Amino acid sequence: MPTVWPGEILEYTDDCLEGHGIYKEISGNNEEMFISSIAGTVKQVDRLITIEADTYWYTPGVGDVVVGWVTGIANKRWYVEINSRQDTVLLLNSINLIGNVQRRKGELDEIMMSEYYSIGDIVIAEVQSTGNKIQLHTRSSKYRKISFGVLIKLEGAVTDNRGQYHKQTVNGKEIEIVIGKNGYVVVHSDDHTAHGEIKEVALSLSNYI
Known about the structure:
Strand content: 35-45%
Shape: elongated
CATH architecture of the largest domain: Beta Barrel
Distance between the termini: 19 Å
């Protein structure tokens, strides 16, 4: 059975029923369309159509661009979920301070850690080292916290290179897609009124993968 991506239109008749990983929308011709909401393999049992997500764990490589989110803060580090079996940390010494100020981090910075990255924040980072723990860094302007966007897990999908960046203008608003090597994607914009445009691009991810 075929592998599909989020937002991909599936070719099935109206007699079929949508199951897990599929939803329906009405097309411009007033016809019902089956659309995938996750990446995975299409399964059909009688009239029921479902998508079975592939189980996938990311194996890190130094230099990989990854997308994740902060799950904890302790001991001068942030814990980040990047779809790996190993613990992943972002050390306080491995970030740029606000305004890209170059100085040694001190006690005040440790107190203010939640001002830099708080639990639940989406983060774009680079793998700095691997071993017992994965260490990330954000010492570049392209690695940062995302304040307005959506995070999507592509399950078994992994890009062939270190990470991909795409930009698209929708209704005059610039939307950026960052595809992490770990199978997580963030679709975001600096324009906080771009709710609909972000959703539109997120539903068409198959155009970029």
